[in-house]
């Protein structure tokens, strides 16, 4: 009886067994939640036939996008500062337009 009590109060039973139960139980729980996610995706993942036809009519390929990018001029660009969180975007845009107007004059 004393050995059983000592085993029960040991570090293995106090920390090790609950840790293993959480790990094993968590893996089974995650598997179930992931399965639910995939089942819902399978049900709602169907594409509308009209949208599918529209995508077939206008195929976008990697080569066509590369040609668009190749035609654009990437050497002459200007870094435009956006507004900070505390600034009003309209005010910053107005200041930017004013600076461009003064620059062109």
UniProtKB/TrEMBL annotation:
One Gene Ontology cellular component annotation held by this UniProt entry: mitochondrial inner membrane
Family stated for the protein in its record: Belongs to the COX16 family.
Record GO biological process: mitochondrial respiratory chain complex IV assembly
Record membrane topology: Single-pass membrane protein
Origin superkingdom: Eukaryota
Name of this chain's protein: Cytochrome c oxidase assembly protein COX16 homolog, mitochondrial
Record-linked Pfam families: COX16
InterPro entries: Cyt_c_Oxase_assmbl_COX16
Cellular compartments annotated: Mitochondrion inner membrane
Keyword line: Membrane, Mitochondrion, Mitochondrion inner membrane, Transmembrane, Transmembrane helix
């Amino acid at each position: 009886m004393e050995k059983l009590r000592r085993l029960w109060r040991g570090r293995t039973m106090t920390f090790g067994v609950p840790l293993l139960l959480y790990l094993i139980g968590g893996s089974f729980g995650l598997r179930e939640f992931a399965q639910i996610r995939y089942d819902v995706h399978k049900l709602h993942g169907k594409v509308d036939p009209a949208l599918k036809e529209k995508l077939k009519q206008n195929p976008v390929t990697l080569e066509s996008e590369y040609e668009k990018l190749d035609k654009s001029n990437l050497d002459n660009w200007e870094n435009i500062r956006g507004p900070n969180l505390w600034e009003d975007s309209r005010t910053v845009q107005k200041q930017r337009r004013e600076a461009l107007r003064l620059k062109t004059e």
